[in-house]
Hints:
Elements: H1 5-13, E1 16-17, H2 26-32, H3 49-62, E2 66-70, H4 73-88, E3 92-95, H5 100-103, H6 108-113, E4 116-119, H7 129-133, E5 141-145, H8 158-171, E6 175-179, H9 182-189, H10 193-197, E7 202-206, E8 217-221, H11 223-235, H12 244-257, H13 261-276, E9 281-284, E10 292-297, H14 301-315, E11 317-318, E12 324-327, E13 330-336, H15 339-343, H16 346-362
Parallel strand pairs: 1-11, 3-4, 3-5, 5-6, 6-7
Antiparallel strand pairs: 2-8, 7-8, 9-10, 10-13, 12-13
Helix pairs in contact: 1-14, 4-11, 9-13, 14-16
Amino acid sequence: MKKDSALSQSYQDADYPIIGHGPRSMQVLLDAFKQADGSQFSDMYGKGEIIEAFEAKMAKLLGKEAAVFFPSGTMAQQIALRIWCDRRGYRTAAYHPLCHLEIHEERGLHELHGIRSILLGGEDRLITLEDIQAVGEPIGCLLLELPQREIGGQLPAYEELEAISAWCREQGIPIHLDGARLFEIVPYYGRSEAEISSLFDSVYVSFYKGIGGIAGAILAGDADLAQQSKVWKRRHGGDLISLYPYIVSSEHYLDKRLPLMESYLDGARDLSSRFNRCSRMRTVPEQPVSNMFHLHLDLPVERASALLEQTAKDTGVSFLPYLKETSPDSCAGEIHIGDRYARIPAEKLDQAFKRLEELAGQA
Length: 363
């Protein structure tokens, strides 16, 4: 996304920035460690009570035989796909054209593992069962991302997921879930993490996105996948002598924020409905299905940035730190709701949208 320094600065300076839980400062670490047991031994090279207990907790939550803690989701997902492709004997992984592995990882899956990507469907829509069935070559592994971040956090109908899962299992194709934001979709589907994960052979979740921890990820699946992933983690240099700062942070914020996911969804829906009543603005999805959505503005990026910056200066409420150009006459930005939204006084939010609409009408 295009960074606008003035817009970014106005967002940081505002009394009420809307996105997420708060700044990623040292306080995130300090809060997580407030009630930590200082006498507890750290983990060492993937072993020890602190890491093994958390892995067992996550395996139970996700309904899988075993789970392995990783320092990053990039590492966890490449390793998961490598293991599945090795089992199948095919060096191909199928996923969405805007999958994280395709656009953010510098061809890591290919360069490190020799796995070629098969891109399914179009960039502006979700993968369908028909897209998968139309692939004219063997698939080593299928990856689905829920929600699909780059198109606003959209989700398929649960029945579509069930159909995809059933068909892939009939064909012997393993399915991996990019569940970086899995916790955030539980309220929409009305099913537990374990129920959703049961449709997949392996699952990755992140602890710094909606959860708000420092860093870290879990890869969960069968016991053999877990054991192999530990070997690959060592090969990738991810088996640090100790990962406990990430583990303590992950567990603290997981326990704190899992019960709040439905309120984040409610906040996203409230905010999106306000934007959709504004001139020259719309959200994708129109009604969010998780705590995130994309805001589209029918204005050139420079004018839209100036509008948002002025709103922040006039009201103290800031909506976005940056925008990306989608055409010469339009732009968009990503919004995700966390703890911050509930802290904004209702009258301040009303004031901000009144000012936003005034400025949009003049633009």
